[in-house]
Specification:
Elements lengths: L1 E3 L2 H8 L6 E5 L5 H11 L5 E5 L19 H11 L3 E3 L3 H4 L12 H4 L3 H4 L3 H16 L3 E5 L3 H13 L5 E5 L19 H6 L2 H15 L5 H14 L3 E9 L16 E9 L2 E8 L1
Parallel strand pairs: 1-4, 2-3, 2-5, 3-4, 5-6
Antiparallel strand pairs: 7-8, 8-9
Bound molecules: pantoate.
Pantoate binds next to strand 2 and helix 7.
């Protein structure tokens, strides 16, 4: 496996557009990323993974500076998982001049949920993903369902700009106890790591309550779920039942089973965790 740091070197390795499967990452890799690489491998194309911590998608108060940069360890993991080429540009390579042109996603999809609590986040994600696509020119790109809204926003961007590639979804990988793997889990101390399980459990409980119907309105169930987490010391941003198709609230959750996703984001100490479950 090779590591390249410039777009010129990347292009020289790939020798043309549409010749690879791509997994974009911000590094600090875990089994969830490696599962995406293995999925990309199944296309029978060379697999490229990018490692780039994208300043544009972090608000000034967020964890851009302390986000772990672990390139050597990431490279050790990527090779055995089936990655052929790592593209690890630095900021001066990817953004040689300030990135003043940005990709502005549809607010109906990007200003809700994550976008409501992290204004500008999806503009940052879309801008870097568009740029990475332009550098890598993949035939297929694999994004995890763990970042459910991100996957939808990127899919919509690819459709709207008629990008010549396929966006594929990879399943969320969970620890044995059910916690979704995330680079940010590394910020948790032992007690927080044990408590973190309360988020997927709250999502499952909300899913069950929403599907049971029984006349209780969804907003009340969501508020209850948030209050439950808050009582345990969390600061929840949202726990919501939404349609998979457009992330809008269902009219009747019980009747829309099979087409819904329950999404949540909450802060435990200074660590913000997100998760979702399709129901
Ligand atoms: O999901 C991530 O790790 C990032 O948002 C991505 C897609 C690599 C863009 O920086």
């Amino acid at each position: 496996m090779k590591i390249v740091h410039t777009t010129a070197a990347l292009r020289a390795e790939l020798g043309g557009a549409g010749r690879c499967a791509f997994v974009p990452t911000m590094g600090n890799l875990h089994e969830g990323h490696l599962a995406l690489v293995r999925q990309a491998r199944a296309h029978g194309l060379p697999v490229v993974a990018s490692i780039f911590v994208n300043r544009l998608q972090f608000a000034p108060h967020e964890d851009f500076d302390r986000y772990p940069r672990t390139l050597a360890r990431d490279a050790e993991l990527l090779g055995p998982a089936g990655c052929d080429l790592v593209f690890a540009p630095d900021e001066a390579e990817l953004y040689p001049r300030p990135q003043t042109f940005k990709v502005q996603p549809d607010p109906a999809l990007a200003d809700i949920l994550e976008g409501a609590f992290r204004p500008g986040f999806f503009t940052g994600v879309c801008t870097v993903v568009m740029k990475l696509f332009a550098c890598v020119q993949p035939a297929v790109a694999v994004f995890g369902r763990k970042d459910y809204q991100q996957l939808m926003v990127v899919r919509r961007m690819a459709e709207q700009f008629a990008l010549p590639l396929r966006i594929e979804a990879g399943d969320t990988v969970r620890a044995a106890d059910g916690l979704a793997l995330s680079s940010r889990n590394g910020y948790l101390d032992a007690a927080q790591r044990a408590e973190a399980l309360a988020l997927p459990q709250a999502l499952q409980a909300l899913a069950r309550a929403a599907l049971a119907g029984g006349g209780t309105d969804l907003a009340a169930l969501e508020a209850q779920a948030m209050a439950g987490l808050a009582a345990r010391g969390w600061q929840p941003d949202y726990l919501c039942v939404r349609r998979r198709a457009d992330l809008q609230p269902p009219v009747d959750a019980a009747r829309e089973a099979g087409a819904l996703v329950v999404l949540g984001a909450a802060r435990l100490g200074s660590t913000r965790l997100i998760d979702n479950v399709e129901v």
